[in-house]
Inverse folding.
């Protein structure tokens, strides 16, 4: 359900959507265009660098999992090219540590996938001191904490199951079984 109070682009705010998932990138780009934004997209880090150099977007939506490089490293590179760009990082493999690292490296905000267009726009409009709606404080389950730790190690290993298994001190197949099971949010 769409929020009727989602703001529309003012004076054609420029947005670059960087995501290797073609379907998600195309849908988000189209949705932003329908709201009046001027949108470009990139499916690969080199394409993203080129688009930032060419267009200097005001906003940038960046997927954390990109082929060939860490999204965190790409974030730093893109902000070096255009420091005024406001970046919202998206990932399906989020953890508190990854979110903090993304913000430390210059991201304006961090959202976990799936995030819809309204959530993304609101993330860009939120100021650093603004409060997010706070969910009730819950202690994550052991399975959830383990999943977040594994996700962080997978990110550090560049997505290599073999390297992550070595870092975690477990057999590769055990890690593959754990990755196949995503714990519930509780």
């Amino acid at each position: 359900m769409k929020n009727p109070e989602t703001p529309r682009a003012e004076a054609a705010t420029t947005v670059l959507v960087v995501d290797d998932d073609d379907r998600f990138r195309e849908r988000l780009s189209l949705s932003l265009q329908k709201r009046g934004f001027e949108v470009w997209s990139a499916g690969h880090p080199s394409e993203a660098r080129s688009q930032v150099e060419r267009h200097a977007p005001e906003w940038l939506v960046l997927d954390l999992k990109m082929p060939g490089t860490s999204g965190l490293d790409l974030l730093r590179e893109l902000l070096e090219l255009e420091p005024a760009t406001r970046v919202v990082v998206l990932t399906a493999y989020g953890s508190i540590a990854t979110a903090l690292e993304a913000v430390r490296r210059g991201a304006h905000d961090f959202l976990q996938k799936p995030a819809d267009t309204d959530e993304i726009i609101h993330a860009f409009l939120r100021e650093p001191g603004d409060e997010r709606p706070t969910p009730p404080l819950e202690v994550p389950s052991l399975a959830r904490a383990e999943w977040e730790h594994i996700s962080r190690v997978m990110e550090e290993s560049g997505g290599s199951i073999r390297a992550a298994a070595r870092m975690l001190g477990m057999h590769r197949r055990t890690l593959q079984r754990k990755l196949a099971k995503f714990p519930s949010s509780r």
Notes: Confidence is low (pLDDT under 50) at residues 133-138. Residues 70 and 87 are 15 Å apart (CA to CA). DSSP finds eight helices and seven strands in the chain.
